Amino acid sequence: MIYKSIAEKLRVRLNSSDYAVGSPLPGEKALAQEFGVARMTIRNALDLLVSWGVVVRRHGSGTFVARKDVHHETNSLCGLAEVLRLQGKEVVSQVLKFEVMPAPPAIARQLRVLVNERIWFSRRLRYVDGKPLMLEDSYMPVALFPYLSLAHLEGSKFDYIEKECGLTISGNYESLTPVLADRQLAEQLNVAEHTPLLRISSLSYNDSGVFLNYSVMYRNTREYQVDYHLRRSAPHQPVL
Fold first, then answer.
1. How are beta strands 91-102 and 71-74 bridged, if at all?
2. Average pLDDT for 145-171
3. Which residue of 2, 42, 126, 158 is surrounded by the most CB atoms within 10 Å?
4. Cα separation of 109 and 102, whole Å?
5. How many other CB atoms sit within 10 Å of the CB of residue 205?
């Protein structure tokens, strides 16, 4: 049916960098003129997008982008590659830098290692379905990961840490901050300067409380959405 074809075309368009979550869609009349169909056909196409959860209607205001297809809903700790590959996305990591360096004071404090202790530094540009999604700087203690290689970084760090090194990643501390892309970030993520990005600092630890990895990531908010599902623990019983 023609409305399904139009819905698919609109879905592709809404996942482009021309639209961010919350952006309004053109009106039904404008879309009907663009596709050369009746407004009822456009309404059916938008109904389909609503059923997919891609757009939402607001009475008296119009239709708005609700989410992107590159979408991460989390109620547990998973790596980006793990989540998106489960969604059928192609995830590619381009390693821009990979070297051993002495831990500067700020990084040493995060990893709980000595200042100037040897750590790995890596910078990766993560692509999803051919589009640059995230720039990631990571720091890992050489003492814990003496055999870390370029091949590991081109794959999944979580897989390397848990499957090859036998270390269980028990938890993660994250801090999220909105920032604007400077010239370097804009070039690497293929966005305009001053585009809003999400800066995420992430500190992972194992079941013994040893800190394994500290990362600072910049994500393209036009191409990526994260939903958190967090459960509230049962209230503590008062001590009598």
1. unpaired
2. 90
3. 42
4. 13
5. 19
Q: Report the SS3 class of residue 163.
A: helix
Q: What is the CA radius of gyration of the chain?
A: 22
d(CA 86, CA 97): 27
Residue 239 has a pLDDT of 44
User: Can you count the helices (H) and strands (E) in the chain?
Assistant: 8, 10
- Is the four-CA dihedral 34, 40, 43, 47 of positive or negative sign? negative
First and final C-alpha spacing in the chain: 67
211 neighbors 176 (Cβ within 8 angstroms) = no
The answer to whether the beta carbons of residues 174 and 200 sit under 8 Å apart is yes
Q: Which residues contact 221 (CB under 8 A, 6 or more apart)?
A: 20, 21, 196, 197, 198
Chain center to CA of 202: 12
Mean pLDDT computed over every residue of the chain? 83
Query: Could you tell me if 118 and 100 are in contact, meaning their C-beta atoms sit under 8 angstroms apart?
Result: yes
pTM for this predicted structure: 0.63
**Element spanning 39, H or E:** helix 39-52
Which of 61, 67, 55, 56 lies closest to 27, judged by CA?
A: 61
d(CA 96, CA 134): 13
Contact 191, 180 (CB under 8 A): no
Residue 34 corresponds to which amino acid?
E
